[in-house]
Structure formats: structure tokens, C-alpha cells
Amino acid sequence: MYERLNGVVLRTISYNDKNSIVKVYTDSHGLLSFLLPQNGGKAARMRRALFQPLSLVEIESDITAGREIYRIRESRCIVPLPSLHSHPVKNALSLFITELLSHVIVEEERNAPLFSYISNSVQLLDRLDDGIANFHICFLYNLGIFLGIEPDISTYVKGSRFDMLNGVFTTGIPSHGHFIGQKESEALMLISRMTYYNMHLFRFNREQRRRLLNLIIDYYRLHNSAVGEIRSLDILTSLFT
């Protein structure tokens, strides 16, 4: 039976001479894979343009249990994102976010709060003028809440260290090596208060922002073995640090 799905485009990968596969995180079925024609026709070119990273699309497809790849019957843009793919900094951010999401989202399972968070974040990034340099840090920290790996900030006391393995702050030194010092733990506590509405008020120098981003990604890797090398990280670091 044909269904209409809302989705966020994550990535497109080569499949064969005629088709690519586009990975889309949908509102009703989680992560799905769709065939995307690669011929030179006008319709194929328009469809490829529609499926850029983080594009918000509506797809009509026959979602039948047991399939791994689905065919697109119809597709359209839900919300135009005029600056996301034309603004060089926002485009770099979109590539980084889609790469990370491709690592952490692997299930064909509905998660309405996570879908809403990603969709709303994409739309905000498109409209954003101030605070762009902190957007990815804010996005990653709060994404952890929806993935169930957010730090337990209730355990923080001044001078404590963050135990990255257990996700808590501690006044002692953990027996393992996965923890950060007092100053960086204080900075982590600081960004726990960061939202899209106040992130333009947070001031970090080049080294602080680089270090915070690397710490958050290391934290993701500790709690999700699928998070490997992030190839777009170097580009992002050069822009914001």
C-alpha cells in the first residue's frame, strides 16, 4: 500500500549505473532507503536536486515489510531551504550533521520526538543569522538527549570531573581513562544551558570550540560504536575554530 512520508534526507550513495540509493530519516518508519534514478533526464535531475543533504521532503512509496530498498512514486519539497545549500558555512554544517546522523541513526523504527528535533533544527539553521558558529555544538549536545546519552548534569558540583564512560560528574578520579578535567567539565556544564535561542551569547575562542566539539564526538563514540571517522570534521573545524 502506498504511503506518504515526511523525511529528512541524510545521504546518497552509489548503487549501480542507473540508480543511487538515498537514505531518508522518515517520520513514520525511521531510516529508509530509496532508489534514486541517475539518468540524464530532466525529471531525474530535478529529483536529485530535491534530495540534497538535510532537505525536507514528502515521499509517496509502497512501504512493504521485508524490503530493504523502496521505489519513489512521487516526491516533493515540504519546506524550501533557500540558504541551507547556497550559504557555504551552512552547507558545511549540513554535510557534517548528515554524516554524523548517518552514523547514529540506523534503525527502521519510528521516533517522533527525534524526527521533530532534526526537522525543526534544519529549518532554524536555514533562517539563522546569529550564532551559526555554535549551532553544531548546540545541535550535538541536545541530540544526545533524544539518543539517551545526555550527561547527568544533576551530578555536577564545582570542581568535579566528567566521567565520559558513565555520563556523570564525579569529585574523584575515575579508574578508567575516559574523563575530562575540571575546566573542561565546567565548560561542558556551561553548554548544557545552551539553546538555539541563546547560543549567540556564548563566546568561545578557537581552541575552546575545537576542543568542545572533539570532546562531544569522543563522547558519542564511547556510547555508540558505529560513530567512526567524521570526514567532514576537518572542514568544519577550519571554519569555526
Description:
The protein has seven helices and eight strands. The chain is α+β, with helices and mostly antiparallel strands and 241 residues long. The protein folds into two domains: 78 residues, OB fold (Dihydrolipoamide Acetyltransferase, E2P); 120 residues, no CATH class. The strands form two sheets. A five-stranded antiparallel sheet has the order 3-2-1-4-5, sandwiched between helices. Strands 7-6-8 form a three-stranded antiparallel sheet, with helices on one face. The protein is elongated, with a radius of gyration of 19 Å.
Which tags fit this structure?
single chain, 241 residues, alpha+beta, OB fold (Dihydrolipoamide Acetyltransferase, E2P), 2 domains, three-stranded antiparallel sheet, 7 helices, 21% strand, elongated
Quick gist of this model?
This protein is of the alpha+beta class. 39% of the residues lie in helices and 21% in strands.
**General shape:** elongated
Strand percentage lies at 15-25%
Give the count of helical stretches: 7
Instruction: Spell the H/E element sequence.
Output: EEEHEEHHHEEEHHH
Count of the domains: 2
Head-to-tail CA distance between termini? 49 Å
Query: Strand order within the widest sheet?
Result: 3-2-1-4-5
Number of strands: 8
Name the helicity range. 25-40%
Radius of gyration: 19 Å
Secondary-structure-derived class = alpha+beta
Mean pLDDT: 90
Largest sheet: 5 strands, antiparallel
